[in-house]
Write a structure and sequence with these properties.
heterodimer; A: mainly alpha; Amino acid/polyamine transporter I; 22 helices; B: mainly alpha; two-stranded antiparallel sheet; about 60% helix; elongated; cell membrane (chain A); Na/solute_symporter (chain A)
Chain lengths: ~500, ~140
């Protein structure tokens, strides 16, 4: 591949991101602007921004890569990624917006009336964020290596530097614009090449570089490992993805930027539509990749399918342009998810450790980005979608029970919440580490490698039992806080007499 | 001068009209529209009385019931789909426009179902809230 194409695409995305960030700086002045964009972002903007933030390396590159490896079973990933928002809509979106808290630890403290519970939540949120940034940086390393031939670390470092600059200068307000732009960039970057490739493959226009497809080429060979994954693995994966989404810090912080609870619901509805459209395209890339680039899976870089397919199928200038578009989209994916995570982590770290000032936010942002960079440089990229799936399992075992029980059950106490989160976190972390040491054919491997199906219930049960055992520790303000979460705001159409 | 723009030490003649004074021109903190705090009247009403408390509890209960029903409905649909995929023998061989039915179902067919569940939920949740509002305002 011509390195100039990759360079141009990466530099163009970075410059545009920085420009929108600087434009955002002009409308972002107060502390409140910095954290949650003054809570006045419109549903369409907000939904695009959530889409931009959420569609990470795992979605953009990972799903197609996974289809290359495991075929049909990979489709459960995009389904889970999307349906996670359904659970978020049902159980969390509107109440969380009404809670009036900036971050998940804020929510924990307000609901449980305990700074101890707040600190435990903060630590978990920061861990989730760091774990989630690492695969983004791996994706960036892969992209830079594949498209420009530069060493891997350049990609990871470039993402961290650009993200730090945008976040430090603009805070969340500018991030909202950047994210919204990046969603549409990502969608275009997959949709346009997919369209051209489908035209070629179906023989509607042009010819493939390697001549027409041999007659009888089957995109879905009957030898497909149909449902080869065990029932348990699929189920556990779905539990992780469905319940992990509603604990992701960078997704949740977005809901605070809605004007009210009803707008938070509308935003989620739009997000679901946007994700449904987006996820059609990685599937198309994956299916075509199996036919045209079968070597990638054997070489151990199936995640590069999306990056290489347009260049391999469309020759000449057109191929270079499409490749540039895809590389730009991939880079947008790393930038947007990483910056979303860095913003939310910086919010948590600066409020807990640095007093919540704008200066503290900036220092915390650098810290939030540099730690995962060190981890990413010291580790190797696994399958991106799989790694991110494990982060979802961890979130579903820790933050998710806190949110669900905190929002819907009066009986939750601080002791119960902390015990549940610790049990879920320790079990899930231990299972994932053990899975790496267990032999491939051990019967325990699936259970350990995909632990959500038992760690999530364990966390819920611990939370409920310990809360029932410590009824005296119920927060006195809990009833009032619960009514704040669920009672609808006065509709904006009827402003009060004072205005 | 102190922050209020009033001279600190100069005596002001008692009969003088309010000094033409300084008009503080303050830039808005941001161009964003600052919304007032949205604690609602209905919430205040709810907190004042035992009846209000009961109404809030019933609102929470009906919202939770709604969420659980739609969530379990969706999961059941997903589960039945998976069962069909695995155990109905003809299904995986069936093709539409050359694409096998399992790929169509998992790659595209699930998403309209997700959208429909979400839309139904938002409608019903808003209706619950409107009912609560009507109840509180009648009181």
């Amino acid at each position: 591949m011509n390195p100039a194409v990759g360079f141009t695409a990466v530099i163009a995305v970075s410059v545009i991101t920085a420009l929108i960030g600087i434009y955002g700086l002009r409308v972002s002045r107060t502390t409140s602007d910095f954290y949650v964009a003054s809570r006045t972002v419109r549903p369409w903007w907000n939904a695009s921004a959530i889409g931009g933030e959420y569609l990470s390396a795992a979605s953009f590159l990972g799903i197609a890569g996974l289809i290359m490896i495991s075929g049909l079973d990979a489709l459960w990933f995009p389904i889970g990624y999307t349906a996670g928002y359904l659970m978020l809509l049902f159980f969390v979106a509107a109440p969380l917006r009404r809670s009036g808290a900036y971050t998940i630890p804020d929510f924990a403290e307000a609901r449980l009336g305990s700074t101890g519970a707040r600190h435990v939540t903060s630590i978990l949120v920061v861990m989730v964020g760091w774990l989630y940034i690492v695969p983004q940086l791996h994706g960036a390393a892969l992209t830079i290596r594949t498209t420009t031939g530069l060493p891997s670390w350049v990609g990871a470092v470039a993402v961290v530097v650009i993200v730090c600059l945008t976040v430090i200068t603009g805070g969340m307000r500018s991030i909202t614009f950047v994210q919204a732009f990046q969603f549409w960039l990502k969608l275009t970057a997959l949709a346009v090449p997919a369209f051209f490739i489908l035209l070629l493959v179906t023989g509607t226009a042009g010819t493939l570089p390697g001549g027409p497809l041999p007659a009888g080429t089957d995109f879905f060979p009957p030898s497909d490992p149909l449902g080869s994954g065990s029932m348990y693995t699929t189920l556990s994966l779905l539990v992780a993805l469905l319940f992990g989404t509603l604990g992701l810090p960078h997704v949740l912080v977005r809901f605070y930027t809605n004007p009210d609870g009803a707008a938070a619901r509308r935003t989620t509805l739009i997000v679901l539509g946007l994700l449904s459209i987006f996820y059609l395209f990685p599937t198309i890339f994956g299916v075509l990749g199996r036919v045209f680039l079968p070597g990638l899976a054997k070489e151990g870089t199936p995640d590069a399918t999306v990056l290489l397919l347009p260049g391999a199928l469309v020759g000449g200038m057109g191929g270079s342009l499409l490749t540039a578009l895809v590389v730009a989209g991939a880079f947008a994916a790393f930038l947007s998810t990483t910056s979303g995570l860095v913003v939310s982590l910086a919010g948590v770290i600066s409020q807990d450790l640095l007093g919540g000032s704008v200066r503290g936010f900036r220092i915390a942002a650098v810290g939030a980005a540099v730690v995962p960079l060190v981890v990413a440089l010291g580790t190797d990229s696994l399958a991106l979608a799989g790694t991110v799936g494990l982060v979802f399992a961890f979130t579903a075992s820790t933050v998710c029970p806190l949110l669900l029980l905190g929002i819907w059950w009066r009986g939750l106490t601080d002791a119960g919440a902390v015990a549940g989160m610790v049990v879920g976190g320790v079990l899930c972390g231990a299972a994932i580490m053990l899975a790496a040491r267990v032999g491939v054919d051990s019967g325990w491997r699936d259970v350990l490698a995909q632990p959500a199906a038992w760690t999530v219930p364990a966390s819920f049960i611990t939370m409920v039992l310990v809360s029932l055992a410590t009824p005296r520790r119920r927060s006195p303000g809990a009833a009032r806080f619960m009514s704040k979460l669920h009672v609808p705001e006065r509709p904006l159409a009827h402003p009060g007499p004072s205005r | 001068m102190n922050d209020d723009g009033v001279p600190e030490s100069q005596p002001v003649p008692p009969a003088a009209p309010p000094a033409a004074g300084r008009v503080r021109v303050v830039a808005p903190g941001s161009q964003a529209r600052h919304l007032p705090e949205l604690t609602s009247v209905s919430q205040e009403v709810a907190e004042q009385s035992a009846v209000g408390e009961v109404m809030v509890r019933s609102l929470i209960r009906s919202q939770l019931r709604l969420s659980l029903v739609v969530a379990f409905g969706f999961m059941a649909a997903l589960f039945i789909g998976t069962m069909v995929l695995r155990w109905v023998p003809g299904f995986s061989a069936w093709r539409i426009l050359g694409i096998p039915a399992p790929w169509l179902m998992l790659g595209a067919g699930v998403y309209p179902v997700i959208g429909a569940c979400a839309w139904l939920y938002v409608r019903a949740a808003t209706k619950n809230e409107n009912q609560y509002r009507d109840l509180v305002e009648e009181k």
